[in-house]
Fold these 2 entries.
Entry 1:
Amino acid sequence: MTTAIRAAGLTKRYGQITAVAGLSFDVAPGRVTGFLGPNGAGKSTTMRMILGLDHPTSGAVTVHGVPYAKLKHPLRRIGALLDAKAVHGGRSARNHLLAIAQSNGIPASRVAECLELVGLTEAAKRRVGGFSLGMSQRLGIAAALLGDPEILLFDEPVNGLDPDGILWIRTLMRKLAAEGRTVFVSSHLMSEMAQTADHLIVIGRGALIADTSVEEFIGRSSQGYVKVRSPYLAEVAALLPHAERHDDHLRVAGVAPLEIGALVAQRGLALEELTFVQPTLEAAYMELTKDSLEYTS
Amino acid sequence: MIDVLRSEWTKIRSVRSTMWTLGTAGVLMLAFGALMAVVVSGQSGGMEGLEPAGMSLTGLPFASLALATLGVLVISGEYRSGAIRTTLAAVPNRLELLTAKVVVFAAVALVVSTVASFGAFFVSQAVFAREGLSVALTEPGVFRAVVGAGLYLTASGLFGLALGALIRHTPGAIVMVIALILVLPSQTAMLPGEWGPFVHEHFTSNAGMRITDVNPVGGLPPWQGFAVYLGWIAVTLVAAAVLLKKRDA
């Protein structure tokens, strides 16, 4: 598989603070790759380095094997949405996109096409300063799509959006990947990535935690457990030497519910609850990133 | 390069601050020129030692601030909104971007400033003419001063742009440009010693305004003074370019 984006030993320090620490990963084309990590993990810094906006302290990142700054007409290769509100509020949506298109020799006709694509045709002549966050997000996506690029970068695209907007962006990202494009999307919400991503790159404190498919990611963290509640909790606990004792229940890992039930029945004890608890993506994520939260409350 | 120039042209023509600052510069030039002519020609007594051509350009220091403000906004406005990241993602060659901004701004500023300067000259001469005091463009130094006024305004705008790129912060850059071209130049007159007068003579607008002087007596010759002013701007612009290349966006 060819690589759309490759980071190699990517590191960024701001004085004493290391935002990104020796990050290496490949982003493969034709799928949605989720870039996941708690707030402050270094996701935005990494994205800015991909786009050549911030200079790495050491290491490198390339797009189609080339540093971003070496790309001629970069918007035709890679489109990005970083901060939807980072636009000059006094300009109309159309002029905002026109200036971006012109800078990369993209025909002006693409402006109308992209406005149509994101449903902003009606608002084309309005000043973007008056746009809602949802509309700004759509405008930012229109800007990313102007050059019809093979690679798309979205930094926290669903932040602050209403459910309609979230659904729209999810569907769009799936559609873009289905067209064979590379979609690299960051989020601090595991549940969001579970809905859209095929592959995950998880970082914490600027370092790589996992680079894996979504299924593998769930599998490799915790295997789930059986929750046992009983009026005779102490006696039941004595039967299950590896059980983890909680306030009003036991957690048993590595033993099937049927075995536990049989064991308890042999002693004539009654059970109140016997449930197999599936690991969730959310739980897997929390477990993996719990040591890497920048600020723990 | 032509792509980036086209893009910067779209940007500068599509925001209100361009119309406001350029409009203000034009109005200030015309209004001060006319006002000065009305006041002076209404006074009894001769016109000994007075220069009707120079007086028509009285609005220059004020109009230069309007131009400098637009110059600052051309780049610091993008930093304020964060749009600079979109711009630099589209044009990763930062020197190419800065060059395009300078070229487009200079072209726009030169046209507007030159029109405003000639406008101020003709309006004010029309007032003087009622008293028979007007001068013609063909008289010595007059044409050079009026053209020079347009050049001086354009250069002041570029000074603003260079400071905006250097400081990246709108109020900071505007305060800096006011200090450098309006406040400090007169203060340098108080500098002591041998080098005091030299610094005073070569300080930003003290040097730059020489080109707008119809009858320059002593000090730097008009074009040489303007060249010194361009030197100030060039140094600032180079510093801004070096930092723009080096800094994170």
Entry 2:
Amino acid sequence: MNGKVTIRHRESDSDAEADIFDNVTLDDFQESQATWRPVLWGACAIMKLTGQPLPLYKHWDWTTKAPALTRLDVSFFGLKCEGRLQGLMKADTGTLYRCRTESQTGQELVYVDYVETAPWNLQTYMEALGRKRLYSGVGVRLMQAAVELSIDNELKGRVGLHSLPDSEAFYHKIGMTPHERDKNKQCLMWFEFTPENAQSFLENYK
Amino acid sequence: MNGRKAMTLMLTDAEMAALDRMSDSKDMTKAAIIRQALRLYQALDERLSRGDKVYVEDDEKKEKAELVVL
């Protein structure tokens, strides 16, 4: 799952080569804290003044997940472009969550516990700061890594996650199946890739 | 994905039968089952090494039993 992928540089409307990697280290977590959080919090301060809803993940701190770096049932992925960290994902293969789609009920899956894109790649925050977003496609590439992790573990592309409200449209768009809100998980909506729609996702976003 | 290394594994008949059954029921290769088992064992062992206790709960009766890991 380490390799080159393309994401879209928004201003030039051209492809940009990026590196996706699964040997994430504490340095990557620290980079997210040092470079992402000031931008996100700056945008949130302006959004608060204008009465816009703030993202639920604004307090995330990836460095707290460092103890899981040595666990075999946890995989971390990062994506870098032009030397800067553009996205991070934590995906669990030892999860107790199981498929909820009727044809897959009870089957094991890869659970995407956390996924985050650098704030300068998100339109909402860049609009608040009066700037243009830098790249698009980071979330797609990370979700592809989750599907590939699932395939690699013979889980046939099955992936599940609880979506934050702001991200639901994204998971709809990439073809994940929405399910009921989970009362045991802050009423977040459960989304799932079946083997079939995981395959379609990989083909549609080459 | 990190590189992989091969190894030979000797199992008893009973262990192999259990592995066969799990491989069939989960539609996964035996290697995938063993890798999954290793991930689970490491996760449990790490918690137990920290002094945590691991329980299984009867969903209907809500009774908890401590999980013993050899």
